[in-house]
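lol forgot to send this yesterday, sorry. struct tokens for the thing we talked abt
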């Protein structure tokens, strides 16, 4: 006996839709995954390339500091432009290439480099050239990019004045011209606390020291320009690049307690870079100088050394000043601020107002300015 069951059979025209939908979904998923994989692979390559560049610039920066030391010791050999390219070995000896120029980047096989100049840190090939007309040392690191794709290079330019790195205490000079100076100031609420070894609030000590610095520096249309950037967990332009000394002094005199939380070195330095770019500061006619002051450790998830390295690669001289108390003055943060500084700049910590004024005074002397008056 035949038995029939009533049901809801799908029309014949619709019975294949499920398979088609599955195949379509698999196809779409394959395209999405392939794109994600390609994007991840490219991101890895880009991250590695960025890491290589930072390492190369750090290597060049280290040789800049060695150049500065050799020049201050009175060694004249590095100023012999006719002797050609050179590098510096671990014993501070000058090692010459025997040539005055490097091959084109794409065709450089690195065979012309002396042994001590090759495969530094297993990858980088370093050369230094002194350009006598501009009195600039150019340190260049070259390497084969990750994956063997191409040759890459990173260069730093640094001006060393022979025999004039140490300012004479008895013969102060007027402020040298054509500098764009960015004051990068910590405006986080911890600046409202007192200095480590005095009853003066940090923001007030900063106000007094920075005001003296501005008073003594020649800001004018034919000389220096200045800008002020504030940073906390964000960064903001407080005074754009200007030669108006009155405007800078008025701002310093109006400086009050800080109002914001967080301390992001990266955003502060990035804002300085933007200010220099917008004001066309990175030019042959002007020097760029950053004077950064902070009382707290970098506590945001970002790497300030990336933008600091970029600034130094463009020729910026960076000074870092700490007004740390015992809690924040750790080897970790000290090293970070030391690494941020460079191109002749340096890090110093100040525990009271007198030390802070002295810190600004020493920077003013190195910039070629008269001593700021004592408070």
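and heres what i got for the seq, position by position
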């Amino acid at each position: 006996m035949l038995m029939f069951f009533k049901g809801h059979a799908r029309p014949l025209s619709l019975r294949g839709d499920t398979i088609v939908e599955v195949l379509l979904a698999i196809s779409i998923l394959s395209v999405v995954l392939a794109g994600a994989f390609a994007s991840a692979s490219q991101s890895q390559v880009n991250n590695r390339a960025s890491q290589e560049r930072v390492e190369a610039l750090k290597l060049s920066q280290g040789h800049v500091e060695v150049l500065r030391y050799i020049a201050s010791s009175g060694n004249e050999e590095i100023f012999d432009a006719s002797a050609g390219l050179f590098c510096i070995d671990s014993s501070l000896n000058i090692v010459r290439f025997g040539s005055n120029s490097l091959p084109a980047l794409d065709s450089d096989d690195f065979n012309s480099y002396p042994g001590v100049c090759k495969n530094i840190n297993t990858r980088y090939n370093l050369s230094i050239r002194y350009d006598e007309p501009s009195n600039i040392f150019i340190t260049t690191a070259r390497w084969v990019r990750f994956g063997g794709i191409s040759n890459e290079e990173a260069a730093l330019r640094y001006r060393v004045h022979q025999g004039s790195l140490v300012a004479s205490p008895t013969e102060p000079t007027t402020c040298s011209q054509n500098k764009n100076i960015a004051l990068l100031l910590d405006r986080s609420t911890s600046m409202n606390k007192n200095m480590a070894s005095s009853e003066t609030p940090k923001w007030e000590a900063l106000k007094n020291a920075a005001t003296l610095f501005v008073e003594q520096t020649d800001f004018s249309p034919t000389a220096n320009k200045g800008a002020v950037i504030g940073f906390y967990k964000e960064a903001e332009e407080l005074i754009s690049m200007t030669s108006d000394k009155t405007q800078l002094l008025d701002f310093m005199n109006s400086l009050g307690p800080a109002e914001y939380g967080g301390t992001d070195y990266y955003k502060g330095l990035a804002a300085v870079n933007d200010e220099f770019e917008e004001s066309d500061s990175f030019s042959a006619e002007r020097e760029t100088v950053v004077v950064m002051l902070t009382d707290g450790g970098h506590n945001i998830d970002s790497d300030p050394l990336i933008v600091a390295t970029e600034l130094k690669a463009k020729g910026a001289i960076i000074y870092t000043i700490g007004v740390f108390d015992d809690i924040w003055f750790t080897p970790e943060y000290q090293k970070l601020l030391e690494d941020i500084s460079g191109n002749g700049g340096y890090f110093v910590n100040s525990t009271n107002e007198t030390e802070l004024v002295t810190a600004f005074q020493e920077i003013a002397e190195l910039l070629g300015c008269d001593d700021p008056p004592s408070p």
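Residues 163-177, 369-375 have pLDDT under 50 and may be disordered. anyway ping me if u want another try
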